[in-house]
Design goal:
Keywords: Coiled coil. InterPro entries: CCDC77. This is Coiled-coil domain-containing protein 77 isoform X3. This protein is mainly α. The chain is built from ten helices and no strands. Helix 9 packs antiparallel against helix 10.
Length: 481
C-alpha cells in the first residue's frame, strides 16, 4: 500500500514538473515572438505611441473580463494532447523528455525488482509458517499416541497382574490337591504299583509357566513381585469349599496363610499401579494445561499484532488517500491557472498582432481609434451613472442603518417599560394577596388597576411587534437593494 501511494505521489510530482516545464517553454516562446515583432517594427513606435494607449486599456479590460468569465465557468479542461499540440518541438525539449522517460523507466524497473524481492520474502515466510504448523500438528499427534501407549501399558500391567493371581490360585490348588492325595494314600495304604490319572476332557484353563526376570527394569521387578504374591480371586472361588462341604473339615492353616500373603501382595501391586496411573494422569493433565495456556497466549499475541498491523494499514491508507486527493486537487488547480495564463498570453499575442496589422494600415487604425473613443465615452457615461447610483444606494443604506438603530433603541426602551410594568403587576399581585381580607371596594380598585396594567402591557407589546416588523422590512429591503 505504501509503495502504491509513493508511486501515485511520484507520478503526480512528475506530471506537475512536466506541465510546469511545458508552460515555461510556452512563455519563453511567446516572449521571443513579442521581442521579434517589437524589433521588426521599432521605427513606427514613436509615431503610434499615442494610438496604442487606448487599445491597450480596452484590451486589458476585455482580457480581464474574459479571464473572470473563464474562471467563473466550470467547463472541463481540454485534453493534454490538444494543449501540447500548440507547442513547438525542439531538440532540447525532446532530449529532456527522453532523459526523463529513461529515468522513469529505470525507476519503474527498480520498483518492480523490489516488489519481486518482497514477494519472495513473503512466500518464504508463508512456507516457514506452514511447516511450523505441520510440525505442531505432528507433535500433537505424537503426544496423543504417547497418551494412548500409556493407557495400553497400564491395561497390559493389569492383565499381567490378573495372570499372576491366577497362577498363584492354581499353585494353591495344586498344593491342596497334593495334600488330599497324600491323605487318601495314607488312608488306603501304599502300593508298589504305579498310579495313573486319566482326564475325560482337557482342562478349561491353560497354565502359563512363570519365568524369572533377571533384568534391572523396575516394571519387570514389579511384575516379578506381583507374580510371587498376587492372588486376588483365590478366596472368591475357593475350590476347597466343595471338599469342605463334603468332608466338613477345616482348611489347612498353611494354605490360608499362603492365600493371605498372595492377597496382600496383590493389594500392594494394585495400590502401586493405581498410584502410578493417577500420577501419570496428573502429569498428562499438567502438560495439556501448559500447552493450552501457551497456545492461548500465542493466539492472543498474534491477534494483538494483527490488530496493530490492521490499524497501521488503515492509517497509512487514510494518509495516502488524503495525500493523493490533495495532490490531485493541487494538480487540477495548477492546470486551471496554467490554462488561464496561457489564454491570457494568447490574447496578448492576438492583441499585438492586431496592433501590428493596424500600424501597417492607417485607415483601419483611424477607424479603430474612433471606435475606441466612442467606447471610452460610453464607458465614462456608464461609470458616471454607476457611481451616482452607488452613491445614492450608499446614502440609503446609511439612512436605513440610522433608522434601524433608532428602532432598536425604541425597542429597548419599550422592553424596559414592559419590564417595569411587569414588576408593578407583580407588586400589585403581592398587595392583592396581602389585602385579600379587606372590603369589596378596594378589591374592585385593585382589579381595575390590574386590568389597566394588562391593557398597557398589550399596547406596548403591539408597538414592539410593529417596530420589529418595520425593522425586518427595512433589513429585507436593504438585502434586496
Amino acid at each position: 500500500m505504501t509503495a502504491s501511494c509513493r508511486k501515485w505521489s511520484t507520478n503526480s510530482e512528475r506530471l506537475l514538473v512536466i506541465l510546469g516545464f511545458l508552460f515555461y517553454l510556452l512563455n519563453i516562446a511567446i516572449c521571443c515572438e513579442l521581442k521579434k515583432e517589437n524589433m521588426d517594427f521599432s521605427p513606427h513606435r514613436g509615431l503610434h505611441e499615442g494610438r496604442y494607449r487606448s487599445p491597450s486599456l480596452q484590451d486589458t479590460t476585455m482580457s480581464s473580463s474574459h479571464t473572470q468569465k473563464n474562471r467563473g465557468d466550470s467547463t472541463p479542461l481540454p485534453p493534454i494532447n490538444e494543449r501540447l499540440a500548440f507547442l513547438r518541438p525542439s531538440r532540447e525539449l525532446l532530449e529532456y523528455y527522453r532523459k526523463k522517460i529513461a529515468e522513469f523507466d529505470e525507476e519503474h524497473e527498480d520498483l518492480v525488482k523490489q516488489l519481486e524481492q518482497y514477494k519472495a520474502t513473503f512466500e518464504e515466510q508463508h512456507k516457514l509458517q506452514w511447516e511450523m504448523r505441520q510440525r505442531e500438528e505432528e507433535i500433537s499427534e505424537l503426544q496423543k499416541a504417547l497418551s494412548d501407549m500409556q493407557v495400553y501399558l497400564f491395561q497390559e500391567r493389569e492383565h499381567v497382574l490378573r495372570l499372576y493371581s491366577e497362577n498363584d490360585r492354581l499353585k494353591i490348588r495344586e498344593l491342596e490337591d497334593r495334600k488330599k492325595i497324600q491323605k487318601l494314600l495314607a488312608l488306603v495304604g501304599t502300593s508298589e504299583g504305579d498310579v495313573t490319572y486319566f482326564h475325560k476332557e482337557p482342562p478349561n484353563k491353560v497354565t502359563i509357566p512363570q519365568r524369572a526376570v533377571q533384568s534391572g527394569d523396575p516394571y519387570a521387578r514389579k511384575l516379578q513381585r506381583s507374580g510371587q504374591a498376587g492372588t486376588k480371586q483365590a478366596p472368591l472361588k475357593a475350590p476347597g469349599k466343595q471338599d469342605r462341604s463334603k468332608e466338613g473339615k477345616k482348611e489347612d492353616p498353611q494354605i490360608l496363610l499362603l492365600q493371605v500373603e498372595a492377597l496382600q501382595a496383590q493389594l500392594e501391586e494394585q495400590t502401586r499401579l493405581s498410584k502410578e496411573q493417577i500420577e501419570t494422569l496428573l502429569e498428562d493433565r499438567k502438560v495439556r494445561v501448559e500447552e493450552t495456556q501457551v497456545q492461548h497466549q500465542r493466539d492472543q499475541d498474534k491477534m494483538k499484532s494483527m490488530t496493530d498491523k490492521l490499524n497501521k494499514t488503515q492509517k497509512l491508507l487514510y494518509e495516502s488517500t488524503r495525500d493523493f486527493l490533495q495532490l490531485k486537487f493541487e494538480c487540477r488547480a495548477n492546470e486551471k491557472s496554467w490554462m488561464a495564463e496561457k489564454d491570457r498570453l494568447l490574447r496578448e499575442l492576438d492583441r499585438c498582432r492586431e496592433q501590428l496589422a493596424l500600424s501597417s494600415d492607417p485607415e483601419q487604425e483611424r477607424e479603430h481609434e474612433r471606435e475606441i473613443l466612442r467606447l471610452s465615452l460610453a464607458e465614462k457615461a456608464h461609470r458616471h451613472s454607476h457611481s451616482e447610483e452607488v452613491k445614492s444606494l450608499t446614502e440609503q443604506l446609511a439612512q436605513a442603518h440610522r433608522l434601524a438603530e433608532m428602532y432598536r433603541e425604541q425597542c429597548v426602551t419599550l422592553e424596559d417599560e414592559l419590564g417595569k410594568i411587569r414588576e408593578e403587576g407583580d407588586v400589585g399581585r403581592e398587595i392583592f394577596k396581602v389585602t385579600l381580607n379587606i372590603g369589596p371596594d378596594q378589591d374592585l380598585a385593585i382589579l381595575d388597576a390590574v386590568r389597566q396594567g394588562n391593557k398597557k402591557t398589550q399596547k406596548i407589546q403591539g408597538e414592539l411587534r410593529n417596530l420589529k416588523a418595520k425593522i425586518y422590512g427595512l433589513e429585507n429591503e436593504l438585502r434586496i437593494g
